[in-house]
Amino acid sequence: MPVSDALNKEEEQLYTLHGMWCTSCALAVEGSLKRLEGVREVSVHYPSATLCISGTPVAIQLPTLAPKVKRLGYRLTELEPVADAHGRLEEESRYLTLRLMVGSLFGMWTMLASLLIYAGALPSERIELVVAWVSGAFSLPVVLFAGVPFYRAGWRTLLAKRPGMDGLVSLGVIGAVVVSVWLLGRGSAEVYFDTAVMLIVLLLVGRLVETLCRHRGLKALDALALPNDDITVWQNEHWGSVPVDEVTKGTRVELEPGELIALDGILEAPGWIDTASLTGESLPRYFNAGQKVYAGCRYLGTTPMVMQVSAGVGKRRLDRLCDEMRRYQAKKGELQKLADRFAAWLSPLALVLAMLTLPTALLLGLGWEDAFVRALSVLVVACPCAVGLAVPLASLAGSGQAMQQGVALRDPAALETLAHIRSVALDKTGTLTTGSHSVLHWQAREGIDKHTLQRKLRAAVAGSEHPLAQALACWSGSQHDRHHEQCVDVNEAPGEGRHVRLSNGEWLMVGSADWLSRHQIALPDHEEDTALAFATQVMVADGAGWLATLYLTDQPVEDAEKSVKHLLDAGYVVAMISGDREGVVSWLGERVGLGREACYAQRSPEAKARLLQGLPSPTLYVGDGLNDTLSLAAADVGIAPLNASEAAREGASAQLMTPGMGGVVKLLSIAKRTRRIMVQNLFFSALYNTLALGLVVLMAIPPLVAVLAMAASSLTVTLNAARLAWAESDENG
Fold first, then answer.
1. More confident residue, 485 or 594
2. Which of 79, 152, 192, 301 is 20 to 30 Å apart from 488, CA to CA?
3. Which tens digits make up the pLDDT trace of 546-560?
4. Domains in the chain, ordered, with CATH?
């Protein structure tokens, strides 16, 4: 039974698919693999050349799939690194550029010859016929070299029994050449070599622009890449430099002061680490020996530090995030699925219409020449290039723009949902707040000034790992003065307080009010207690009794108020849902501009999810902790802040890569623009193909005009998506 369960358990794999030329290639591979036993779902993302397949482990293994894909003329490999993807797109660009140069050079002379014939600028019919033959000769390099990728792709899609746009292009080019040669044989100079040439050249231009857009979209992942420099490692009983990608788990590496940490690892000694890139904390953190640090952080110590590698290149936290983004990129939203269905039936329909056009035209009394031209125009105008590019290019451009704005979109399909969000629910700690406490207010006994209190407190909390102690240390400052005392004896009660003796013989107690009371310390009644009831109190005492009371609270992130106001002004229902105390939640809600009715305190993870489901849908939830995972799953879209836990990141569709809440506002704005462009592209391309097919069947449209119209539609869709990719940063979110 366990063996059977293991065999039937479904998995998901991501591969790189080489050799695709257009979206028809993607549909052909999808259609072929979907018919395999054990395969549940297949999604090929043409812009990123990735194949996402789910099913039983045996069915979706690379050795099982690769031969089937190879029979179609494509090549399937393990998921390529981002650097290799860049190289592949650069190679494609050079490949297209060479063919475009050949097509443009010889196509120019073909067009010139055709224009002379069309304009009647030649002195005699004999010379027109000679020029027509010359036009055909100049078209040969274009047809036989520049157009080869279209024929290859058309043949592959035919083998997969999913004929697409390249099949139509190939038939259009071959048809134009055959008709032209037939006309030349009859002594007519009214040839259509220019149609074949223009069809190839304009499509090559479109493919080149499209490739450049794909290359730009892929650069979104570069933000997660680290420099591939040499690092210092301990091997063969001495320290030496090796490339970072050759370092394996368990290797000891040396970190220089100020060095960017290139690998995940465990520290062998304590030190200060700048984690801003991963946690968003504005202040460095003190890490103890045995604590884990991640690649992307920076070591701020003054002496070299040794770290034991826990994850090498390809296994790091940043690498996993990059792979997850690419995995989700391969999945399709509803608009993309709609576009695929439209393109799937459009090509066979166009082929049928072209086959019907020829005999119909003959029955209506048209000559063979006019009938062939009509059928040729149907083939040309029906190419669903624009339909296939409408959604994926916009999605890729939107994902790239989101990354530029500091949001790693792990699920680009979520862009469609984000555009319709009605409610935004926010966690408190670590989402609306910094996740670290700071001193809000303090009181001391008479005669104790701030400087004296800070000097004593600095000595009392030195070396403590408690978050509140670290906050007090930060407030006390790190400057040295001649009155600075050293802590020589520490007796700490975890979670309650610490008793310390200084080098001058003085003793201090720092901790909770209850802990100090149990040690017979008389504490005063503060008038501010009621007003600061939400804050965390820390008491300080010395040999004379009570010394000071400090009030600490988790402060809101810098842009919390601005972001919440922007969301409210935009018409979203905004709520804060927290497991924290009522007073703290109410105080924070007031600070960021939320009314009491929008602030929910002391909610369990289950209660959070239930409350979220009661908000107007679709819903967006932003949370960072383990207690937020249920809500992230219950929401239509989940977003994890920069300092989120691993569990929260796994359950979220996007992750903020910069501190604060501004990324949420920017992502919602980008989603609306992206969907708007998706709808524009899809509507325009569908309208073009529908109207163009109708017109070309009912009336005579020259093939050259059909070529220009088809190319214009594809370029329009591509440039419309590029408009999003090249959009300027929206400073206002």
1. 594
2. 301
3. 888 888 877 777 888
4. 2-81 (3.30.70.100), 230-312 (2.70.150.10), 417-433+557-662 (3.40.50.1000), 434-556 (3.40.1110.10)
